[in-house]
């Protein structure tokens, strides 16, 4: 069997104990602290 290609993205990264979205920790810095609109801007533009 051949190896599957890795998917590389700048939007997010998952580690063992945290999830990063554009460099921000999802649970520590984003959830419950920013609005849906702010999250959309972060995902699209890469900044808050």
Would you list the SSEs in sequence order as H and E?
EEEHH
User: Helical amount among residues, as a percent range?
Assistant: 25-40%
The tally of strands reads 3
State which percent range the strand residues make up: 15-25%
Number of helices: 2
Average pLDDT value? Answer: 91
Which segments are poorly predicted (pLDDT under 50) over 5 or more consecutive residues? none
Query: What is the CA-atom radius of gyration, in angstroms?
Result: 13 Å
Overall outline: flat
Number of domains: 1
Structural class: alpha+beta
Show the helix and strand layout.
Blueprint: E1 12-14, E2 19-21, E3 24-25, H1 26-30, H2 36-45
Account of the protein in words:
The protein is of the alpha+beta class. The protein has one domain. The protein has two helices and three strands; from the N terminus they run E-E-E-H-H. It has helices at 26-30, 36-45; strands spanning 12-14, 19-21, 24-25. It has a three-stranded antiparallel beta sheet with strand order 1-2-3. It is flat and about 45 Å long. The chain starts with 11 loop residues before the first strand and ends with a helix. The model has no long low-confidence stretch (mean pLDDT 91).
Task: Please supply descriptive tags for the structure shown above.
alpha+beta; three-stranded antiparallel β-sheet; 48 residues
In short:
The protein is built from two helices and three strands. The chain is of the alpha+beta class and 48 residues long.
């Amino acid at each position: 069997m051949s190896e599957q290609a890795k998917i590389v993205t700048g939007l997010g990264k998952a580690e063992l104990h945290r999830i990063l979205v554009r460099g921000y920790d999802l649970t520590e810095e984003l959830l419950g602290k920013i609005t849906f609109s702010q999250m959309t801007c972060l995902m699209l533009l890469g900044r808050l």
